[in-house]
User: Which sequence fits this backbone?
C-alpha cells in the first residue's frame, strides 16, 4: 500500500460496477477507482478477466499488467449468464451510480440487464458502454479490438516511416483513448443528472475516440485534397522538432520551432547567425528547409554527449527531452519530486513500481490504495455488506456456481 493521502478522493461518493474485460472497460474503471470511487468489478467465477494473464510475466506466471489496471478495485465473482447472477447484478446496480461494460452491443440485453430495465430500478444510473464501433450503425454488431479502431480512426496510417508499412504505438492507445473519453462522458452524464435526476447511456466507440484526436486530418482532405502521410519522427513544416543523435549513442528530442525559441537554440549552438538566415528566420522558412536544418542540428548534437546537449538546452531555455524508457523514468529526479511513479506492496512481487494517478488534484487527489485484487477477493464482503446476504445465502450461491 502507499501512504494514505488523508483526503477522500474526488469520486469517493460514487459506486461503480465494472463488467468490462480486457482493457477498454477496465481502464475506464481504473480512472474512477484512482480517484476514490468504489469500483466493484464483476468477474466470471473460476476464470476472471483475461487481463489477469496478459502482459509480460514473471517466471512464476503472474501478470504485471493486472496489478495496474485493476488497482483500487474490488473483485466479486458473479456468473452473469445465469438468472441468479443477473439478479445479483441488478441488486448491486440498484444502489450504484455507474455501470461500465465493454461487451458487444446486445450482450446486456441478452442478460436481462438492458438500460431500460435497469432504469426501472435505478433511474439515476449512468451506463458507460465501450465498443469497437458504437451501439448503432451497420458495423455495431462486429467485434472490434483497439487495433481495428486505431486503423479505422486514422492513427495507424500516419504512424511510422514513409517507406514502410504503417506502424503501431507500443501501447494499446485505441482502448485507452476510448476508455478515457468514456470516463469523461460518464462524468458529464453524472453532472447532467444533477439537473435532470436521470441517468443516460454513454456510447464510446474506439474508432471515434481515435478519430477525435486526429486534429484537422479530415478537414484538410475535405477542403484541400491533402492526405496526411507517414513522416517518421517529424511533423511536416514544423521545424526544428526532431530526435537528434549524440556522441554517446543516445538521442535527444529538441523542439525549437517557434521563432524566439529557434533564436535561443541558434545561440546555444554557437551559431546565432542562423536565426537571421532567410532560410531559417521564420516558421514557414524553416518548414520549407526542414531536412537541411535537421541535418545541421544533428551534426552539432553528434559532437556532444546527451548530458552536454541537455545542459545547453536548459541554459538557453529550449524545450528538450531525452528519449526515456522505464530505467530513465525510475532514475529521474523530476519524476521523483512529483511522485509520478509510486511503489505499492504486492503479495507476490513485494515492492512494485507503477505510474501514479493523474492528473493531480490539490484538494481531492487520486491515490493507489491497493494493487489488482485476487479473483473474488471481495465477493463475501460485497454480498454481505452491500447486499445484506447472510453466510448461508452466500454458501448457497457458491454451491450453485453463481459466485
Assistant:
Amino acid at each position: 500500500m502507499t501512504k494514505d493521502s488523508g483526503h477522500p478522493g474526488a469520486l469517493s461518493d460514487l459506486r461503480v460496477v465494472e463488467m468490462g474485460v480486457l482493457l477498454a472497460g477496465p481502464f475506464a474503471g481504473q480512472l474512477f477507482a484512482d480517484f476514490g470511487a468504489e469500483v466493484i468489478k464483476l468477474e466470471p467465477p473460476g476464470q476472471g478477466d483475461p487481463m489477469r494473464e496478459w502482459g509480460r510475466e514473471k517466471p512464476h506466471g503472474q501478470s504485471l499488467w493486472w496489478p495496474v489496471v485493476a488497482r483500487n478495485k474490488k473483485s466479486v465473482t458473479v456468473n452473469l449468464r445465469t438468472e441468479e447472477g443477473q439478479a445479483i447484478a441488478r441488486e448491486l446496480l440498484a444502489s450504484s451510480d455507474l455501470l461500465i461494460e465493454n461487451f458487444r452491443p446486445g450482450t446486456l440485453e441478452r442478460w436481462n440487464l438492458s438500460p431500460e430495465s435497469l432504469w426501472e430500478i435505478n433511474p439515476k444510473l449512468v451506463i458507460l458502454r465501450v465498443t469497437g464501433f458504437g451501439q448503432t450503425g451497420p458495423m455495431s454488431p462486429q467485434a472490434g479490438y483497439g487495433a481495428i479502431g486505431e486503423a479505422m480512426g486514422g492513427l495507424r496510417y500516419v504512424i511510422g516511416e514513409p517507406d514502410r508499412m504503417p506502424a503501431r504505438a507500443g501501447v494499446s492507445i485505441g482502448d485507452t483513448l476510448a476508455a478515457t473519453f468514456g470516463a469523461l462522458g460518464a462524468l458529464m452524464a453524472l453532472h447532467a443528472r444533477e439537473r435532470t435526476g436521470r441517468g443516460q447511456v454513454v456510447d464510446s466507440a474506439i474508432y471515434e475516440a481515435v478519430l477525435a484526436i486526429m486534429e484537422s486530418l479530415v478537414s484538410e482532405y475535405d477542403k484541400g485534397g491533402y492526405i496526411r502521410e507517414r513522416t517518421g519522427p517529424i511533423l511536416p513544416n514544423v521545424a526544428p522538432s526532431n530526435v537528434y543523435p549524440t556522441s554517446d549513442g543516445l538521442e535527444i528530442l529538441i523542439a525549437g520551432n517557434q521563432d524566439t525559441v529557434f533564436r535561443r537554440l541558434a545561440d546555444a549552438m554557437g551559431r546565432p547567425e542562423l536565426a537571421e538566415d532567410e532560410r531559417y528566420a521564420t516558421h514557414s522558412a524553416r518548414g520549407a528547409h526542414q531536412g537541411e536544418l535537421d541535418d545541421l542540428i544533428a551534426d552539432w548534437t553528434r559532437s556532444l554527449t546527451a548530458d552536454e546537449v541537455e545542459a545547453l538546452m536548459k541554459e538557453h531555455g529550449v524545450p528538450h527531452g531525452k528519449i526515456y524508457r522505464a530505467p530513465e523514468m525510475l532514475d529521474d529526479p523530476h519524476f521523483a519530486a512529483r511522485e509520478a511513479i509510486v511503489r505499492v506492496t504486492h503479495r507476490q512481487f513485494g515492492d512494485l513500481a507503477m505510474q501514479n494517478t493523474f492528473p493531480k488534484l490539490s484538494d481531492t487527489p487520486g491515490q493507489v490504495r491497493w494493487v489488482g485484487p485476487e479473483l473474488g477477493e471481495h465477493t463475501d464482503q460485497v454480498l454481505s455488506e452491500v447486499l445484506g446476504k447472510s453466510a448461508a445465502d452466500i454458501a448457497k450461491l457458491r454451491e450453485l456456481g453463481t459466485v
User: Anything to note?
Assistant: DSSP finds 18 helices and eleven strands in the chain. The chain has two domains: 15-213+359-400, 241-329.
